[in-house]
């Protein structure tokens, strides 16, 4: 039964995503206005979460939602499944996500991510990607948007040690933003390469880290906060 519900969700998710394709020519003719593209992208995300709840019974609850209003901020999240990228578009108003270039190849959705615009990095060009990432982040900030980055770099199985890639401390130091740690246990319900399991994803938003800390201190503190909360949610 879980396998059937998983496939029904995935099929409806594909159809829901494809339904946004006819809007692309209209948006192109109107100059691809970023704010409009972002509103449509958030609508897609809300619909995806609704389909997820309807077909699989997966919902979420948020603790510490008083911190959502903090913006602009540098949001640091753990990465376990596709869920957190989708949910972040709903949880955090007007967000720019630091995402890998491969996501732009996804039909329909890739177009919306490109013109939202998100902060796209090329993992094959380390020096150039860091420079372009900082520039794109500054552009997003000038528009009043918060930034979301997954410091682990890629999705990790539940129970894996939390190890940050280098670079997050550069953004913190360069941009001078408070940092908000965004923790969840989505991998328990949407495991990679497996069927989806009904349940409630718990989201914890921890008290923000103020700007101005030493880069090394920030790196260690934020990694420890995220790791400790992931362990707490795992019980």
From TrEMBL:
Q: Which Pfam families match?
A: Acyltransferase
* Coiled coil ranges: none
Record's InterPro entries? Plipid/glycerol_acylTrfase (IPR002123)
One example of the protein's molecular function in GO is: 1-acylglycerol-3-phosphate O-acyltransferase activity
> Which parts of the sequence belong to the Phospholipid/glycerol acyltransferase domain?
73-187
Please state the pathway this protein functions in, per its UniProt record: Lipid metabolism
Q: Which UniProt keywords apply?
A: Acyltransferase, Plasmid, Transferase
Does the UniProt entry include the keyword Transferase? yes
Which one GO biological process term can you cite for this protein?
Answer: phosphatidic acid biosynthetic process
Name of the protein described by the UniProt record: 1-acyl-sn-glycerol-3-phosphate acyltransferase
